[in-house]
Amino acid sequence: MPRKPTINDPEFDADPDEPREAHLKILDMIRRIPPGYVSTYGRVAEAAGYPKRARWVGQILRNSPLADGVPWHRVVNAAGRISTRGGSGPRRQGVLLKAEGVRIDGNGRVDLDEYLWRFRMKRQARHPSAESGRRSVVLRAP
DNA sequence: AGTTTGACTAATG
DNA sequence: GCATTAGCCAAAC
Known about the structure:
Blueprint: H1 18-31, E1 39-40, H2 41-47, H3 54-63, E2 75-76, H4 89-99, H5 112-115, H6 128-132
The protein binds a DNA duplex through residues 6-8, 19, 40-42, 45, 52-63, 72, 75-79, 82-85, 89-90, 93, 107.
């Protein structure tokens, strides 16, 4: 019996079920953040289709064997700070961000108003009847 | 099998 | 602004 895949699983050859799907989508979203911009754990999770799952993003970046080549340094926390963790990671993240032109203020914070990458909203599924009747409307004063 | 632990966050004081 | 708390959920003990 194949065991259930986890984000730590070095093989990831099982069929695509939920954890793996989320994992890949999250990595995909991070890849879309262009140089010179940042996003946050929560926003990445939401854009990937998993609202309120910010911790998944952190876990994946920490553990995933598939995280090679993803611009992990462009993910900061909701306050614009580089999340703490042991080792030289945080310092390196700051260096990488600065190298891309992201300014970090005296309090160690990235100004999200300036550097936050806004993911393109996925078009929401519409009811078929709404599709054909799409048009612009003008609201009239009451 | 229950508890603790996080690259998290929003709300509250 | 910080600190605390509750919610979060997969991994690790």
